[in-house]
């Protein structure tokens, strides 16, 4: 990362379950925490993903990075690689001063957001099973708020250890690093 450049923003989605069903959560993190997110139901399609980028990611990143250059990382999920999504990212990157990078497939050791998903699931499982979707959504929102106010150490660690994890992954030829 070049000097003066914002810490990479990492985004992906995860399914969360409770006794009343399941929800899906798309989230974007940076070294400061979860800075954009949306709960949705059903399958993530390219049009839904593009809407999330337009209404959640781009406005939040504009406020967070305030014109500074930043990097956006996403995995290779089909909605992320759709032609219209690529076109949207290409066009928006010029306006919002960011670069989208491809992330190696099957590289959870290198993606800090994977650790965040584990922590979020642990936080949600510390409660009794949510009997309905509304409660699961409320608990998810509360967990995000808690992470951003009380668990800053998580994100600092995720980003602080990234270079070390990359070196180990290179040394191990892309095999699991143990992180």
Keywords:
disordered N terminus, alpha/beta, 5 strands, 50% helix, 179 residues, Nucleotidyltransferase, domain 5
Structure description:
- The structure is a single chain.
- The protein has 179 residues and is α/β, with parallel strands linked by helices.
- It has one domain (9-171): Nucleotidyltransferase, domain 5, CATH 3.30.420.10.
- Helices cover 50% and strands 21% of the residues.
- It has 7 helices and 5 strands.
- The chain has helices spanning 46-65, 78-81, 83-96, 112-125, 133-150, 152-160, 162-171, and strands spanning 9-18, 21-30, 33-40, 70-74, 98-102.
- Strands 3-2-1-4-5 form a 5-stranded mixed sheet, with helices on both faces.
- Strand 1 (9-18) and strand 2 (21-30) form a beta hairpin.
- Helix 1 packs parallel to helix 3 (83-96) and helix 4 runs antiparallel to helix 6.
- The chain starts with 8 loop residues before the first strand and ends in an 8-residue tail after the last helix.
- Residues 1-6 have low confidence and may be disordered.
């Amino acid at each position: 990362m070049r000097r003066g450049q914002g810490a990479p923003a990492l985004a992906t989605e995860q399914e969360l379950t409770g006794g009343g069903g399941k929800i899906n959560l798309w989230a974007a993190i940076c070294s400061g925490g979860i800075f954009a997110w949306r709960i949705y139901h059903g399958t993530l399609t390219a049009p839904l993903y593009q809407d999330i980028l337009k209404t959640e990611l781009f406005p939040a990143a504009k406020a967070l990075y305030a014109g500074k250059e930043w990097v956006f990382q996403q995995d290779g999920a089909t909605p992320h690689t759709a032609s219209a999504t690529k076109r949207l990212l290409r066009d928006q990157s010029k306006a919002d001063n960011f670069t989208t990078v491809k992330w190696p497939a099957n590289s959870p050791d290198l993606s800090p957001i994977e650790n965040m998903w584990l922590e979020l699931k642990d936080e949600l499982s510390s409660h009794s099973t949510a009997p309905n979707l509304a409660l699961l959504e409320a608990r998810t929102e509360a967990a995000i708020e808690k992470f951003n106010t009380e668990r800053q150490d998580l994100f600092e660690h995720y980003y602080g250890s990234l270079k070390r994890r990359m070196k180990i992954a290179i040394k191990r030829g892309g095999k699991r690093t143990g992180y």
